[in-house]
Every structure is written in structure tokens, then in C-alpha cells.
Amino acid sequence: MSMLRGLTTMASCRRSLTTSLFALIIFAVAHLATTSAQTFSQGECADQKIVVEGCNATDVVTCTANCGLYGTTYLLDKCCKHTGINANILAFEESATWIPRIEEYGRCTGANIRLQYVDGGEDEMGSALIQDVGENDDETTGQGIYDAYIVQAPWLPPVYKGLKSLSTYIKDNNDYIDFMDINQASRSAVSFEGEVRALPLDTDYISLGWRQDVFGNPDIKEAYKSSWGEELKVPDTIEEMVVIGERLNGRHDFNNDGEMDWGFCLTPQTNYFQAFLAPVLQTHLHECEKTEDGYKCLGANTGQNMFFDVNNFEPLIHNDGYRHAVEMYTRFIMASNCQVQTAAGVKCDRKTAFPTGRCAGVISMPGTMTNLLRENGKYTIPPEKRMDYVLEPGEYWGRRKVFPGSRKVINWNKEGRPLEDCQGSVCPLAKDGINYAPFFAEGGESYALNGRQSKPAATDAMWDMFTWLATLPVGEVPLAGTYRKSQLTDEAIGRLAEQWDNPVMAQDLHDLLLEYFRSEEEGGNTVQDLFIIGFSEYNEALDTELHKNLILQDVDKGGLFNMLDPRKSIDPVRNKAEFDRRYDRFIASLAQRYEDVHARQDGGGLNQLYLWRGALDIHPTKSKEEICQDLLATDHENFDKLGCLDIVLLKDLCQSQESDVEEYSPGTCKVDNNNSTIIISVLFGIVGVGLMGGVVYYLYKRYENYQRIQKAHEQLMEATLNESVRALYQLDYPLHLIRGDEFVEEGKLMRHEVLRNTHKLTVLDSLPDVDAFVAAGKHVLFFSHQWTSFTVPDPSSHQYECMCHAVKDLAMRNGWGESLKDVFVWVDYSCIPQANPSTQNLAIRSLAAYASSATYFVIVAPDTPHADLDDICDLDTYQRRMWCRAEQVCHSMRNGTEGMYLAVGKNVAVEPVRRDFFAESLHVFNGELTCCRLEHKGMGACDRQSLVIPLLGLYGELLRASHEMEREIGNADAIHSVNAFLSEIEKHQEEVFPRTFKRTMWRKNRRLTEEVLLFGDLIDRMKARISSGVGFEIDKESVGTLSTKASETFVRHGASDFLRHGVVHGSGAHGGVQIESAVGAMDNKL
């Protein structure tokens, strides 16, 4: 690892590495080469007795002095807490404030923090992270030398699963972290799958710097108006910025050397081009509603971004908006410092160009911008090269403002996404007809913890350090700029003005960030960088094609730049035809480069699309299978391009997407018929016989096709009936449960993977296993609830508290014992996989079986504010959701309502639901669905269709039970309950089991409403099947594990005698247990 170079601080006393054996061992293990370190005298170390001679937590005076620095209180109770703990942190950029902060932290806590820099800095940090943390899906990789890292968001996608989730840490320390105070763009950049993986203590964005001594110069203003008939002003749009740059270029002397100067300065980089692109391509991230005050944009995700389409991963380069941005950016560069520096064969660089005084303004990232504009800054213009004599008292020459917006935007709702004026619903967040979209490039510095190899003591020490840094003033945090809303208060800006000795610069930064830090609820429209695996490769592809092969390439080599005479470069306006020809070649080459990058990533373009949707936090989330199913319905070209045939089987989709499958691959869903071959042969034999023969053949063919279609339909219907029966007795994914005492001890709803990795889940592979489990005296509680956030199920923990109360209450009522060790809980977030979409989809397909197999069903619906919407979630909103109704029906159709309870508060006793509670729930398909609200944009099927099979099977079981009850003596209450269900269904059959439904969806940017088959005549067919005595025939050998297959009489279990049964001991049953049903033994009948 020669890329790493060391700098060690042993708590507060730096010692020579040549005399520190411990340091030598550490660096030898890490294969690190260190040159030299300063040697301090014994006297210097002796002044810091708290570390060198041992930390004394009882020395209140010393602890207060060492732990109460900068007016913060976080460390006051942590004096000597980490004495003797060693921790290593890996960073990529040096800062003079690192050493004093680490030393101060060590003096207080006693921790030994070692800071290491990556050789090669920012360019090598991404690789170093992978090398040390390891890859996401391979826990065997990663060297694990470091406990913590200073990172930027683009490096996180390949390694985030190996980084410690900070969500719980932040929650426990939020009085100090105040996470929501951090700007939204920085928070989003470090969040993956609902978990925070790094703590942002900085942010990066692009803004415009402009010179007051140029734009306020009366001579320049007069000449400008005389030449162009307009007032010279600081630009508000990219269109204005380009035109002003061109008009100033070569006409004015800004640095008093007698030579005509340029427009604006820049360093041609992909992030600066993307700052031009952002306001053209992204207008609003969520659907908007018109209000009296304008537009409120808090609806469904629009999928807008400036990189890739969230439905098919096509690069967003094939539209007029992209061309407009490239044209603006090209013209901007041709009037910039590049016309001289590039022609001279040197790098076109704002850091070397701006100090010459030849630029009217500059575009840059925040840290560099401060050094460009601040007096005595590293890249600033010296006074002799400015025109400060034109400034009024209190004015300052170097100003900063929001990056210009655009008056032209693409219309995402029209085919081809045309470029249009920014107005109305096309541009709902516009200000004075201008769409602003600040681009937060790269995301800024964040702090992450090693989640795989780091020792807990080292992790705790690093977290305390991170939390302490989060409480410090901006200027005291290494590498940090202003990144919090609270840092924009008058008091905070006053301190910054004092620190810079420049109130104008401080106020400019305040005004800029007040706009940039606006959340979506406040009308903000921040644009996120491309935070997926391959970030650097995508950027390199764009940089190569845009800068090296197009804009800055010589015209004789296919580019736009004339090296011999930059004034003769190809202009997008004057030389439009030639520009368009070379632009089209650029787009084709860029598209191919992007395809090559996709192919180099694990999982190809489809996996990249899945990651990109996750990075943008698109809801509803989709598995790769669901993405492919939607592409099958809407986009066959990208279905093929993304390799979807490796993900889905077309025949498996014949029921839910028959028309889509047939359109893509005709005949896939039709039954093979060898007679067609014979008929074709006959056809060729009778060609020419005559018109009558042709007519006869035509009529016969019509009849034969009708017969074949009819037969295929019959077989499809029978297959559906058979599948509905099979689904009653098999699980597509095992049932996972958490024991009651451990559920209560967790303190909140825990993610499935956390419980799995800590071995706290009980796994039942089949429904017969569930039967045996319950027969052995275990109690299964199914908690049904609605999520109160878009990303996590229960951020307030109100529902979790109700669940814990329900577990204890039911245990006390039923005498299960206070230990709760015979009580097992099912709740979606804990018992369904969250990280792996494929297994998650299998579990969701088993949801009906889970609900029906539980012994108790508890509806959890306390009044709880929705974390992302201005709504209260309660029993009414719960009952409106289709999936919530479906869970209730799946349980009640199998078990009745005896074991169903309602929990509405942590201090309110759970109550049994009313006996007629099922009546409203039965109307499942009248419930609300997110997919329907989104009009199935980018989706192939409606969630309604996924419920046909489980509900059909449950209905069939009700019918079977009713028919058997007519012949056998059964429990009177059970007979009444079954007949009550069937009576309610009979009265409202067309509502309970709709034959068809209206589905609105989008295909090729067109809104279509079509009538889609749902149950059709399946209910009538099920009635006929049961009446004929066919019943439910299944392959009994295909169900159960070795522990359950020996039983000949496994049937459903339960808390009541609805369709379930109690347990009767007897010698003929497996394990001494005989299981009977209220409607008779179901052995061969099944």
C-alpha cells in the first residue's frame, strides 16, 4: 500500500516514529512508508500530563479545561473515557486544523488517534476505501486497517454495506448532531436504503463569482450599453451569462495592462458543465399541485435528474435540452481563459487565470471560490490588477451569488422531452420565469466508520470524535465549510465576517446558501450528483468526449477549437450546421462510452439502474425483476439492452402480462398445437384448387384459431385455479419470526438483516412447519400497520410501542407467561428482507400465507404524524390502504375474526375487532394503492393483479369448508362464521372479486386507460370446481420439511374453530400430537 503516507499523533504528544516501537509495528503491518517526524522534548510532553502520565477523570478542573473547548458540552462527561484506545483514520486531503483537533480530543478522552493520508489524495481515495472496507457483497474482502474514514459521497456506493450504519448513533446523539439541520443535499448523499452511512460535516456546490469592480465600473457599463443597447448586469440565467461573457470578451481591460481581457474564467470539468445542464433538465423532483400561492411539490417522485432515465437507464443526452446546455457551455468556454491557455498548450485553469485579473467572473466550488475572492486568498487577484477605485465605501470587489438558472427547460411530460419556455406546470418552482437548480457536486466531506473489522472500543472513540466535531464552529472543523442551516443565523454570519474580516463576503455566502439549503418542502430544487458505482468512470467518459474530443479538440481533428486562431473556432450559432454534425458524433460516442462503463460494472446496466433509483430514493422501490416487467410493458428495446431475459421468464409472466409477453414474443403464452403443422402442409397442397377451397380453408382456420384460443384460455384459467390452491400450502419464502422477549428488548423496529446477522430470527420453511410450531405451544402474532415515512416504517416508534404493549397484554390475558419466550412476532420490516430485492419479492408473494397462518392478528394504528407528509396516520388511513385490507382478509377468511385485535395506543388495552369488522375489509380492491396513484408510470402491472391468486385460493377454501359442513357435524359457531363470510361475498361479489378493472398507465409517454382482466370468471369456476367435488388436490410430497413430512394429517392450525382447529393428543399423530379440524379430518381430501 505505497499509496498511503503517514502522519501520527499519539493522543496529544507527537513522538518520533524511529523511537516509537508501537508506531513502527502499526506502520509495518500496513506496509506504509514514512519519511520523518518531528521529535519533541520530554518537557513538551510533560506539559500534557493527562495523556502521558495517565488520565484522571476525578480531576474536575483539568477535565473541564480539556473537554469544554469552544463552548461545546459534548465531551464534558467523557473525560478519560477512551484512555488507552487506539484508532486509525484514513483521509485524502490535508488540513492544518487536523492536528490541533486530534490533540485536543486526545487530551480530553485519552484516545490515541492516528491520522493517515492517501498518497495521490482525492484521485486514489475511492480505491483505498474499497481496499480497506471491502466490497458490498463480499464480506471476506477488505484489509480492515482503519477504523474511520474521511469520504466524499461518490466513493460510497461500492462500499456502503461495509460501513457502519450511523442511523442509531445519530438518533441517540441528535441533541448534538441535529441531523435535520444539515442541508438536505448532503443528507441525501450519504443515505443508502434508509440508513445513514456517513456523517456530513461539509458540502460542495457550484456558484458564480463576479467582480464588483467590473460590473460596477461606469466606463464599462456605458460602453456596454452603447454597444448592445442593454444595461450591464450580473447574470441571472446561463443564457445571460454566456451572452455577457461574449460581449465583454476582447473589448475591455480589467487589469490595467492595456490588453483586452476575457469574459468569465473556469477550469473545464464535468461538474461545471453539469451546473449548466442542471437548470435545463431538472425542474421538480416530486409531482406538484397548484395552490393559491403557486405550486406545492410534495407528491410522487417524478424521476427527474440530469444523468440517466430512472425507468430504462438511457442517458439523458438525446434531447434538445442537453444540446442547449452543451451550446451554452461551449460558447462560455470560447469566451473564457481557455482561448489563450488552451491555444498555448497549457491547462485551462481558473486557479492560474483568475489571479491575472483578466476575468470578469469565475465559476467554482465553495472552498476554492473563497480563495479566489478573499483578500490575500491563495488564488485571488492582487490589488494592482483590480479597479478598486470605482468601488463605493462599504463595497468589495469579489462577490458571490447563486449559479444562474435557465429560462429554457425540457418538458418531461411530452414525447421526446422538447425544450420549452420555463412557465406553468412545466416549471413549477420558477422565479420570474427562471428555473434554478443548484448542483451539489460530489457532496462534500463526510465521516464514516468501518462496520466490519473495527473493534467496538475504537468505533466508539471515533464516533465521539465525530460528534464533537459536529458541535464545533465552522472554522474549527477540518476541511468544513458552511453546511448547516443554523450556520446562516445573523450571529453565525457575524462570526464568519469577523473571521474573514469581510462582512460583504459573509453576507453573500449567507444569501447564496439560504437559497441552496431550501428543502423541497420550501421550494428547493437541488440536483444530486451521480452517486453510483462507476462514478469516476462515467465522469471520465464525459470529460473525454466533451472536453478532449469536442470543445477543446482542434478543428482539424474533429473538435470545435481552432488552435491556430481561437477566434475561428466553430461557433454553435454562426456555424450551426457544422456544430450539429460534430455534436451528433459527440452524442453517439458518449452513448457508447456510457454503455461500456455499464458493462464493466457487476450486474451491468440493470444493476446500475437499480442502484441509481436507490440513490435518488425513488418510490415505490422496485426489484430488478419488477423493473424488467415494467420494461416488457413499455420499452422492448431497453428490455433487451439491459438483459432482462436473464432476470425474468416470459412464461411466468403470461398470467399477469399476457398481452405484453405476446407483443414481445408472439406465441409464448399460447398452447402448442401440432395440428397447425398439418394444416399448413395441407394449405400448400391445395393452393390453386380454387376460390371455394380458399374460402373453406379460411373459415376452417378461423374456427381452428378460435378453438385453440379457447383451449388456451381454458388451460390458463385451470392453471390459475391450481396455482391458487398450491399457494395455500406452500411458501415462496420461509416465514421469519422474532421471539417476543427479544422483540420487546430491541427498543425499536429492527431491520431484517440486523436480526438475521445477530441470529434472532426463527425460520419456518413451510406451512406444515408452522402447524407443528403452533401445535408445540407457540403463539404467532402478525402485526399489520402502515409505514409512517417513505424510507423507514416507524421513525417515531409510536407503532413499536403499541406493538410491545400488545404482546404483553395478549400474553397476560392468555396466560402465556411473562417471559414471552413462547410468543413469536411477525412484522414486515423485521421479517421481510430489506437489502436483497429478489428475496424481498419472494417474501412479499408469501404475504397472504404469512397473514393467514398466524394465530393472532393485531392491527396497529395509533395516531401518528407521517414523517414526510403533512398527514396524520390513524385507523382510518390504515383501513383505506389496499394492502392493509388484504392482510386482514387473508387472515380472517382462514381464521375468522376471533383472533383479531386492534391496538391504537401504548397505554390503551388491545381490543378485539367487531365480529362484522371483516365486512369492510372484504372490499379489498376498493382500497388505495400507490401504483394507481402514480398511474403505473414505468410499471408493467398493478398490485391488484398480485392478489388474485391468494384471495381466489382462500375463497375456494371457504367454499370447500361450507360444502363439507353441510354433510358433517361441525362447530356451530364456525359454520355460522363461514356462512357469514360467504353471504357477504355473495351480496357484493362484483365488488369483492371484480371481473375487470380500469388501469391507467403510460406507454411511450402516452397516457392510456384500459380495461384489464382481474378475476374474470374465476369465481364461477371455483364454485363449479367445489360443487363437483373436485376439491383441492395438491402434491403432498412437495410440502413440509423432514420434521413434518412424516405426518399424514397436517392441516391448518389456529386460535379458533373457524377453518382452523385445536390440538388433541393421540397416539396416531406425529410426535404424539393429533391435529383435527372443526370440519373433519383433512387427510386425503387435500
* Mean pLDDT reading: 84
How many strands, what sense, and barrel or not for the largest sheet? 7 strands, mixed
Report the β-strand fraction as a percent range.
5-15%
User: Structural class of the secondary elements?
Assistant: alpha/beta
Q: Biggest sheet: strands side by side, in what order?
A: 20-19-22-21-23-26-27
Count of runs of 4 or more consecutive helical residues: 44
* Low-confidence spans: 1-53, 673-682, 1034-1058, 1060-1086
Helix content: 40-55%
- Global geometry: globular
What does this structure look like?
- The structure is a single chain.
- With about 1100 residues, the protein is an alpha/beta fold.
- It has 44 helices and 31 strands.
- The strands form 10 sheets. A 7-stranded mixed sheet has the order 20-19-22-21-23-26-27, with helices on both faces. The chain has a 6-stranded mixed sheet with strand order 1-3-2-4-17-7. A 4-stranded mixed sheet has the order 9-12-8-13.
- Strand 28 and strand 29 form a beta hairpin.
- The protein is globular, with a radius of gyration of 34 Å.
- The two termini are about 65 Å apart.
- The N terminus and C terminus are likely disordered.
